[in-house]
């Protein structure tokens, strides 16, 4: 490909992204975008780190902030300056590593409105320390580029129990506590918009609170673990073979298997189950295996998630 073709390709991509952002801003339909669908903190070739997004009324509502989320939003065709709220399910690094970076990169991309963030402690301290860490660059850009101080624009809200956590003209968001040991405070979130409802499981074992939260929802975006695949993953991760079983127990014992994801969806009576947060997340498990495993218990529509899939 010559230089002119490269420039043409880049221009075409930017034009498509701009068109899609314009469509999203004017469309009345609520969209769900899977930004990253791999579980765990280590980078994967074919899947980005955990992050999802609800798009409603031209605003972006982000659930979890895995590594690279800002680029994934731009790749999906949306503008970072449309960011309105951030919801963290729990404080594991694969879910919160780019929390500060997402806001900061949105600020650098002309964000001017306040962004409210919600999640378990220590969200307030994390937010404060992020701005301290980046104070040198912040001060440069305020004085050099005339940007507003970003710190007052990111407003963290720590939550420790179930209930309604957010409401605006587009969505109402409720949270329930789920079971993700050893973390004591972990949440699933439900978004109710005028046209559809969607639940994000976060990371959890099978629990009644998740089933009740998802009751009658249009879409359940749910984590999925393939236990035979985790056996192979544990073997690859164990520097010492004697640690293999401990690694397997740690990974498999604190989250839903793909079969259990189907059980939760069936018990809750959801219309569509979207499998997400794949472990293993390196494509060693074929797509049809994920779908067939969930279908053992769930009779509705099953979507095997992919990065940048819009639902």
Quick synopsis:
Helices cover 36% and strands 23% of the residues. It has 311 residues and is an alpha/beta fold. The protein is globular and about 55 Å long.
What is the SS-derived class? alpha/beta
Annotated CATH architecture? 4-Layer Sandwich
- Radius of gyration (CA) equals 20 Å
Mean pLDDT: 91
CATH superfamily: Ribonuclease Z/Hydroxyacylglutathione hydrolase-like
- What is the highest CATH level, the class? Alpha Beta
CATH third-tier fold name:
Metallo-beta-lactamase, Chain A
Total domains, how many?
Answer: 1
The tally of helices reads 11
The tally of beta strands, per DSSP, is: 13
The proportion of strand residues reads 15-25%
Poorly predicted runs of 5 or more residues? 1-26
Helix content: 25-40%
The shape, in one word, is globular
Distance between the termini: 33 Å
> How do the strands line up in the largest sheet?
7-8-9-10-11-12-13
Spell out the helices and strands N to C: HEEEHEHHEHHEEEEEHEHHHEHE
Can you summarize the main beta sheet?
7 strands, mixed
């Amino acid at each position: 490909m010559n230089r002119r073709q490269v420039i043409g390709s880049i221009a075409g991509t930017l034009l498509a992204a701009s068109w899609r952002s314009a469509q999203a801003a004017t469309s009345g339909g609520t969209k769900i975008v899977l930004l990253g669908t791999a579980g765990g903190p280590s980078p994967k070739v074919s899947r980005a780190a955990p992050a999802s997004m609800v798009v409603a009324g031209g605003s972006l509502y982000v659930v979890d902030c895995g590594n690279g989320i800002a680029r994934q939003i731009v790749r999906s065709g949306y503008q970072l300056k449309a960011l309105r709220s951030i919801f963290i399910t729990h404080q594991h690094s694969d879910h919160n590593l780019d929390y500060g970076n997402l806001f900061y990169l949105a600020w650098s991309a002309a964000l001017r409105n306040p962004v409210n963030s919600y999640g378990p402690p220590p969200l307030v301290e994390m937010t404060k320390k992020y701005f301290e860490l980046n104070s040198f660059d912040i001060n440069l850009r305020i004085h050099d580029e005339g940007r507003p101080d970003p710190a007052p624009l990111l407003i963290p809200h720590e939550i420790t129990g179930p209930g309604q956590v957010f409401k605006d003209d587009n969505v109402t968001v409720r949270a329930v506590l789920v079971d993700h040991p050893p973390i004591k405070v972990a949440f699933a979130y439900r978004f109710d918009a005028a046209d559809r409802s969607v639940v994000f499981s976060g990371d959890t074992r099978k629990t009644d609170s998740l089933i009740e939260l998802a009751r009658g929802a249009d879409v359940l975006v749910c984590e999925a673990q393939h236990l035979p695949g985790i056996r192979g993953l544990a073997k690859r991760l164990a520097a010492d073979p004697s640690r293999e079983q401990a690694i397997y127990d740690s990974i498999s014992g604190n989250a839903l298997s793909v079969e259990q994801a189907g059980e939760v969806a069936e018990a809750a009576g959801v219309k569509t189950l979207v499998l997400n947060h794949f472990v293993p997340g390196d494509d060693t498990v074929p797509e049809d295996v994920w779908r067939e495993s969930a279908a053992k218990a769930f009779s509705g529509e099953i979507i095997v998630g992919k990065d940048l899939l819009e639902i």
